[in-house]
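Journal club side-thread
Mid-discussion, someone asked how the predicted structure for our own chain would compare to the paper's figures. Pasting it here so we can look after the session.
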Amino acid sequence: SIFDLGAQKLIDGSELDMKSIAGKPALAMNGLRGEGNSKGYKIALELHQAFGEKLEILLFPCDQFGGQELPADQAAEFCVKKGLPTNAPGCKMFAKSDMNGPSTHPIWALAKAKFPGCGTCIERVARAYHLLIAHTESPVVPVFSDVQWNFDGIFLFDKLGVPASRTSIRNAPT
């Protein structure tokens, strides 16, 4: 559960004890760059306006996708200008974090382990090919859990802090 991950660093340098948001569903989003990708911000803002403190929106700026993220001080300011708080009930912005690799943020590691992403699509295609065309059992197909780009990893956690779903900006939550 994300609520068992202890204190996590926020963009303003403070720490959030993850147990302090226990009992509420949470939505984690990556990629908050300030270069005009307003669709992700719009989704986060609409969810925050609709659910307020009933849903914790966890925003994660990340420089792993083309280094497009604003510097930490500007990222928080940009977020606030868009109408999203960065350290208020219902919306938290974490310190810049890695979504992939050996330094993956623990929230993302937990979420990706439960919902590995596009690998499941590849597995289905491979299984269908082998069963329908090759008439053999499907070989082991690697699962690609890495977040591929900004707003590609959107994870919903239930009230117990357990990953419940994964989606992408290309298939935004409703």
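Post-session note: The beta strands are 7-9, 15-17, 26-30, 56-60, 87-88, 91-93, 154-157, 163-167.
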